Amino acid sequence: MPESWFTPIDSYCERLGTAFWAEPLNAVTNGAFIAAALYAFVLWRRAGGRDWPALWLIAITFIVGTGSFLFHTFANRWSLLADVLPIAVFIYSYFLLAMVRYLNLGLVVAIAATLLFAAFNMSFGRLWFGILPGMTLNGSVGYLPAALALFAVGTVCQVSGVREAGRALLLAACVFALSLFFRSIDSTVCATMPAGTHFLWHVLNALVLFILMKAAIVHSSRKSPIHVQG
After folding, report:
1. Helix intervals (H) in 16-104
2. Overall number of domains in the chain
3. What CATH number is associated with residue 190?
4. Tens of pLDDT along 32-69?
5. Share of the chain above pLDDT 90, in %
6. How far is the CA of 54 from the CAs of 23, 65, 165, in angstroms?
7. Contact 173/161 with Cβ under 8 angstroms?
């Protein structure tokens, strides 16, 4: 592995050095993702334990927590990939699942819609900075398409009569918007909050992923005699 992969990254208010525990709050709060994945796994088992797409989301959520922990402890280029790649996998996986499970699109159409969303996601940064140059939102711009997708798909679900899933997605969108706010102001509050606010991004995002996983499990179980309890 090239030496450049070990180049230190200092992106957050809490980090003041290169030590493993230089971001204790940012590191420890990744346990919220692990807790969300474990509780979702309990719900998955109660719902019959046969919903493999939902189990995939649960596994990815567990990996999100692990990867983010690695980044906020090692804080270098390779651990950054361990942080961002699982998040991207969850976003695209859930978008595809929503197209099929909530909107009842055929697999080919759902994949095409997911590819269009991916293209929008990858081009969004250029569009954003073309209109608002210099407004980086502390590196949060790349997550705005996911927030927009939650609001859009949640609204379409509501209009299409898939109200329970729509409410869940819109709730997740609101929580995600709040988590983006805390992620975006992390560097600006260092003078008054030395620990920053990035740890709240972790806690609220874990809640977002749990809401989404539970919605997927419940919506699947409503199509069978097995229902989620709790």
Report:
1. 24-28, 31-46, 52-74, 77-97
2. 1
3. 1.20.1070
4. 999 999 999 999 999 999 999 999 999 999 999 999 99
5. 90
6. 32, 17, 14
7. no
